[in-house]
# Entry
Amino acid sequence: MDVRPVTRDFVRVFGVGEIDEWRARRVTLNGVDIVLFRCGDAIAAIENLCPHQRFSRFHDAVCRDRTVRCPMHGWSFDVHTGAAVEGGGSVRVFEVRIDGADVSVRVPGPSAVDSMTW
Ligand code: FES
# Structure
């Protein structure tokens, strides 16, 4: 995985071709466990932390109709807004940029690039 800063707030995490509809991709940035999904033509990034019982299992899920279902108990969330579709609460979403063949994610925190996990 080629993870590198793109701007002060965005980090290149994967190539577009590395994220497909059948396999979520996982990266830790600034201490945050993030999962990326391809949903049709879009790529979305959410925190790998379910608000139900705080399991981190979204990386074992797939996206269907812009929704991801937690493998533990079935709560589901819109990957673009983070809002619950079934269950309650919400998941954190992160802005994704696609620049040519590169996928970048806005990482949380003012100095995310300086403290990211490699
Ligand atoms: S931990 Fe995700 S639905 Fe229960």
